[in-house]
Amino acid sequence: MNMHVAGAVAPSFDVANRLEAFAADFECDHPTLILDIDRVEEQYRGLKAGLGRAHIHYAVKANPQREVLERLIALGSHFDAASKGEVELCLSLGAQPHQVSFGNTVKRARDIAWAHEHGITLFAVDSAEEIEKVAENAPGAEVYVRLIVEMSPGDWPLSRKFGCDHDMALELLDHAREHGLKPVGFSFHVGSQTRRAEMWEPVLKVFSRTWAAALENGHDLSLLNIGGGFPAFYGEPIEAPAAYAAGVMELVESYFPNVPRVMAEPGRGMVAEAGVIVAEVMLVSRKSDRDMHRWVYLSIGRFSGLAEAEGEAIRYQFLTEKDGEAMGPCILAGPSCDSADVLYEKRPVMLPTSLKSGDKVLIRNCGAYTTTYSSVCFNGFPPLGVHIL
Amino acid sequence: MNMHVAGAVAPSFDVANRLEAFAADFECDHPTLILDIDRVEEQYRGLKAGLGRAHIHYAVKANPQREVLERLIALGSHFDAASKGEVELCLSLGAQPHQVSFGNTVKRARDIAWAHEHGITLFAVDSAEEIEKVAENAPGAEVYVRLIVEMSPGDWPLSRKFGCDHDMALELLDHAREHGLKPVGFSFHVGSQTRRAEMWEPVLKVFSRTWAAALENGHDLSLLNIGGGFPAFYGEPIEAPAAYAAGVMELVESYFPNVPRVMAEPGRGMVAEAGVIVAEVMLVSRKSDRDMHRWVYLSIGRFSGLAEAEGEAIRYQFLTEKDGEAMGPCILAGPSCDSADVLYEKRPVMLPTSLKSGDKVLIRNCGAYTTTYSSVCFNGFPPLGVHIL
């Protein structure tokens, strides 16, 4: 989309779509996420086409922006909520209680009671204590037991924070039944950014044995929640949403034939590519004349929206107006006085050598896990702004 | 402070002061920081007694709570601001422009201009480009050059994000003078939590050579900014503030005799011990029957106030009502669905074995780097609340 002006080529961003074109011209005083809600709809339709009979429960935590939720409600999406706050938000925007699952395995007792009073009937659990809390505060509710994925195929394997093992999962189904709950099935999370559908196979295979064991134990299971892991593009090739989702569902049908209900919880895969952040270069410097790399400081960092750069896990893509010029490696850091606010250092980022303070930078595919991860007022910097296209 | 009630010992917190006693009785629906402003004053007076002729520039980023700043302004403190937002906050509460330094070496050009228009005269720099920005937007201003500490003695050595080396520092003084600025001296940061005054010696020794070289080059230096590093109590012994500060100043006077102006920038050391967080246990669980450790999930995590638990760097101290009972190791995690929201896993935390969902937990010495580091609405959880004692 370089524009030719009377014989000369004016520098401009090599944008890929109307969202990036809009962002390239957008002026803002502090870093702002531009969101294209039509792009969310396009992604929903692609995922839905591939997932077929599975219910999509959008993982609200990825981006709880009102306009995103409203569009998804209009499209018939269901929702996965991580807290009372997210349940409340979905209901307030018109989602029906049966469309909202309370998917955090760590819930406050009074939040369970609140959700139960407001019609929520489906809760995640992965421990005896949580089952007892749900039984006491949402008597008779449906629960699914989250299984731990010991060998994640994802780019960003999750920690052992959530889920339980095969033996404990079977015990918990019994425990739930003994406490008057309806243990309806299992959930798991393959790991963030599981880039190809075929990578799901070993995980589905392992859990199909747990499913079979539960049936043998007399549990009339009806629900398989395959969680998230649906990828977004951060530079490494990924499959298109419809093909990816269809590939996953083919594996699901093969390892879990005739399972009555399937749930999927895309978050990143639904919204990441619908957002672009507009930021700027604050400073370009070297620490000494012997330094191999430049340091480039942006107006946005780990504490103002790019939390997922922690451990250099998610590698964002940067666009500048000088991208056609000579490029060189640099260490990328945020604007705060915090020494931990460094985005990429172990694997430096290639940026134009002529980059300087004040230059605009677009950060691609930032629609997920940015706005609400931004801190309240770290170092006196306001949180990430949002502009709806 | 256990209270004896008619022949039985009611469980209670083993509190150390009136702040913790208040927190023990405080009821709140979500995690809240209780701040004791008198405790801030006590700390200021201790540090001031030890620092003597040095000006204290409180590092606003540690806790920009209005009541903290108002008390410090009343006590005559100066301030170190990390952004336009922090400069604005200090001035709006009555600090005089000459009392506020703009200490971030990464500033937006228009924020420098804004600060200059509002009377700020002292800026930190560590690169040629930043000097040019200051020269253009705050002509004639005083600048100090930040030096990089290559071998930090602190518990939490800073990254190479800030500062420049000896040779470049000398070049930058020339560069500043050539651009019409007043290069008045140097700053550095020994590293967070430098627990004993004697640990400053090697750093001061190295930089005294840079200072001498600058004088030889004809720079009439007048300012040494010794930065932060003043410790708070997180379980490891530290010196009392007055003794610690006096020890540091003795070393400063010995390595930098007759330096006209000395600045110190305590942040954590000023406010950490003036705050206690009130939180609760959300869940206690195991992942399998073979698990060695329990997992304890709190209502607060890395994204809702305890950002400094990253890398298990800062080890917070926890109080419960059951601390007298049998204790056992556990992995401590936050309430969100984020798998990275784990506080302590490599070095588990000892907590009562009878701990369960709903139990209140006090977190000691949390007055620094908690409130504004809290995210806007991560996973639908509200940011850390604040209550002034």
Automatic annotation (TrEMBL), chains A, B:
Pathway: Amine and polyamine biosynthesis; putrescine biosynthesis via L-ornithine pathway; putrescine from L-ornithine: step 1/1. It comes from the Bacteria. It holds the Pfam family Orn_Arg_deC_N. It catalyses: L-ornithine + H(+) = putrescine + CO2. The keyword Chaperone does not apply. Keywords: Lyase, Pyridoxal phosphate. Signal peptide: none annotated. InterPro entries: Ala_racemase/Decarboxylase_C, De-COase2_N, De-COase2_pyr-phos_BS, Orn/DAP/Arg_de-COase, Orn_de-COase, PLP-binding_barrel. Its cofactor is pyridoxal 5'-phosphate. One of its GO terms (cellular component) is cytoplasm. The keyword Lyase applies. One of its GO terms (biological process) is putrescine biosynthetic process from arginine, via ornithine. Gene3D superfamilies: Alanine racemase, Lyase, Ornithine Decarboxylase, Chain A, domain 1. GO terms for molecular function: ornithine decarboxylase activity. Its EC number is 4.1.1.17. The active site is at C337. The modification N6-(pyridoxal phosphate)lysine is found at K61. Belongs to the Orn/Lys/Arg decarboxylase class-II family. PANTHER family: ARGININE/DIAMINOPIMELATE/ORNITHINE DECARBOXYLASE, ORNITHINE DECARBOXYLASE 1-RELATED. This is ornithine decarboxylase.
